[in-house]
């Protein structure tokens, strides 16, 4: 299975409309569906946020030029919200999953989908 199959499967749930997978270091994009490509400073902001939440807590989360209000930030998961849409980022051993949910989708439904994929990738060594 290619990495794009994972992002395509996230979109196929109809709870997420864009998704990407980056290396855990943020130095390469492994997959994207519906053009969820972050600027270099945005992915590095996420990478730093997994290590130390203070930066994101101070400035908010930025994805594709949009600022998101930080809802959760720890060593595994970062969640952000802008009006009625949101961003979910989950770090595995070797990757960062990033997904966007559109208006009308409950945050809990969307986060559960991304967290389950992260659990699977961790279970197989990624």
Which helices and strands, and how do they pair?
Blueprint: H1 3-12, E1 18-23, E2 29-33, H2 40-51, H3 54-59, E3 61-63, E4 66-73, E5 77-82, E6 85-91, E7 95-101, H4 107-123
Number of helices: 4
SSE run: HEEHHEEEEEH
Number of domains: 1
Q: Could you tell me how far the N terminus lies from the C terminus, measured between alpha carbons in angstroms?
A: 14 Å
Give the class-level CATH name. Alpha Beta
Strand order of the largest sheet: 2-1-7-6-5-4-3
Superfamily (CATH H level) name: Dynein light chain 2a, cytoplasmic
Q: How does this model look, in words?
A:
With 126 residues, the chain is of the alpha+beta class. The chain has a seven-stranded antiparallel β-sheet, with helices on both faces. The chain is globular, with a radius of gyration of 13 Å. The protein is built from four helices and seven strands. A hairpin with a 5-residue loop joins strand 1 (18-23) and strand 2. The model has no long low-confidence stretch (mean pLDDT 95). It has one domain: Dynein light chain 2a, cytoplasmic (Beta-Lactamase, 2-Layer Sandwich).
Summarize, please.
Belongs to the profilin family. It is found in: Cytoplasm, Cytoskeleton. The protein is of the alpha+beta class and 126 residues long.
